[in-house]
Amino acid sequence: MSGKTLAEKILSDKSGDDVRAGDYVEATVDTMLTHDITGPLSFQTFYEVAGEDASPQNPESILLAIDHHAPADGVQAANNHNILREFGEKHGVAQFEVGDGICHQLVVEEGFVKPGDLVIGADSHSTTFGGLGAFGTGVGSSDLGTAMATGELWFRVPETRRFEVTGELSPGVYAKDLILKFIGDVGFAGATYMAAEYTGSAIESLPIHERIVLSNMAIEMGGKAGLVEPDQRTVAFLEAQTGESVELDPNLYSDDDAEFASVERYIGEEIEPQVSKPSNPENAVSVSEVAGTSIDQLFVGTCTNGRYEDIKIVADILAGETLAQGTRMVVVPASRRVYQKALETGVFQTLIDAGAIIQSAGCGPCAGYHQGVLGDDDVCLATANRNFPGREGSMQSQVYLASPATVGASALYGEITDPRSVESKLNRHDDYILSEVQR
Predict the structure, then answer these.
(1) What angle do CA 399, 402, 405 make, to 5 degrees?
(2) Sequence ranges of the binding site for [4Fe-4S] cluster
(3) Could you tell me the sign of the dihedral formed by the alpha carbons of 182, 186, 190, 196, in that order?
(4) Degrees to nearest 5, angle at CA 256 with 168 and 153
């Protein structure tokens, strides 16, 4: 019999069975997360399954975050926040407040994930944790509520579509460009209910914060999970981030003779900066094809590119400069610790001097709720993950997706700009450890 993929190995371990793609399993869940939009329904299901007086099966495995409508933008949002607070206090689960940050970032910062874990979240971008070698996936609120009651959930073991990038990435090309390229090539549904696995020398050389970007946007091609094989760099990152020892299972990789649905091969040096045109992430093209497109707003943030390293890239480009006339920039850090790091190092001062608006940590205008939504005919260039019609505001607005470097370069001219035009200002930042930054 052939070897196994990384996805098959993790789900075999968590189910206690020898399983392959297509099998159905009941698997033990290590971590569960929900937020102020999906939480109330998750709790309702939990009580329906477990009973009104019950407690979660493993309360230490649950993370609640107030991140989408944060701060509250209306009475309903404020009431939902209170529902999360009450559930967290009643059951002693980890509950993060307004301004603490996005649930996906907090899972990483607070040590809720390690290689080989099974992580579910009532949010589609829970694929994020594959960047650390975990099987992370989004589920419905009802599924999450059931898992809170039982500690387990059923899955169909996914096939794996592999993306192999050899060589090195050129200056101005980052993980965001890679994932936009992949999505553009295979389409928005090209990996539906598959595990997208990212491998090759170019992937291995990426810092953890960029690997996370690849996994985060696996869902934008329909992926059930997005996986990067964990290595000693993963271990070093997690140990520094959390201050806890991490033991790496040496079996957490896809076997050489594993069966893949397909293998897409790329040469790192041949990939150019990418931009996804409205109104689907699959509309990815080389930046040269849309260069010169006028922009009204630039948005830096989200669970995809709201980390300190992403924000610093933009600040590096804007240092000593100002935003192009007629443009505005909204910056929303992924967590309070990211906010504090950017404050302490002068990154925010650089952005404020350039004319940017700094918002409190959270999801910001990513889903069009508040903190900078778009009006009719507004054009936005964002480090976000989705650009469907109305995603960041008006149905008549247009959103283009790009890397922080492309957003930073474009901010100088008020139009989409190739980041290689400011190559002297570009850096590939390594991971910044936030363990010493207090919430």
Answers:
(1) 135
(2) 303, 363, 366
(3) negative
(4) 100
CA–CA distance, 131 with 304 (Å, rounded to integer): 12
pTM exceeds 0.90 = yes
* CB contact at 8 A, 177 and 400: no
Which residue numbers belong to the known binding site? Answer: 303, 363, 366
The span from the first CA to the last CA of the chain, in angstroms, equals 50
Please name each of the domains of the chain with its CATH number.
9-267 (3.30.499.10), 277-425 (3.30.499.10)
Per-residue pLDDT of the chain (439 residues), as tens digits, is: 789 999 999 999 999 999 999 999 999 999 999 999 999 999 999 999 999 999 999 999 999 999 999 999 999 999 999 999 999 999 999 999 999 999 999 999 999 999 999 999 999 999 999 999 999 999 999 999 999 999 999 999 999 999 999 999 999 999 999 999 999 999 999 999 999 999 999 999 999 999 999 999 999 999 999 999 999 999 999 999 888 899 999 999 999 999 999 999 999 999 999 999 999 999 999 999 999 999 999 999 999 999 999 999 999 999 999 999 999 999 999 999 999 999 999 999 999 999 999 999 999 999 999 999 999 999 999 999 999 999 999 999 999 999 999 999 999 999 999 999 999 999 888 888 776 665 4
